[in-house]
Amino acid sequence: MLTGKQKRYLRSLAHHLDPIFQVGKGGVNENMIKQINEALEARELIKVSVLKNSLEDTDEVAMAIVEGTKSELVQIIGHTIVLYKESKENKQIELPR
What we know:
By secondary structure, the protein is an alpha+beta fold. The protein has one domain: YhbY-like (Translation Initiation Factor IF3), CATH 3.30.110.60. 38% of the residues lie in helices and 21% in strands. The protein is built from three helices and four strands, in the order αβαβαββ. The chain has helices at 4-14, 30-43, 58-69; strands at 21-23, 45-50, 72-77, 80-84. The longest helix has 14 residues, at 30-43. The mean pLDDT is 96.
């Protein structure tokens, strides 16, 4: 679990990132989970955008992705989800203690 301090730090890092995935009408599927997992392994911190035509609300989408990828939910702002998962082979982000 991330501490408040770690989440604040990750939010500051995520601020300038653009969403690299979009969840639309199709919702979250296995293929998307796989791609998000690969992106998390490569980058550790990503944003996912939930489009207005999505049938699920942003919280539901966030929970589905977090469960599917075993990642940490950093924050949800509007329709944007910020996710973090420590990389096994490509660790770049040093979290504060």
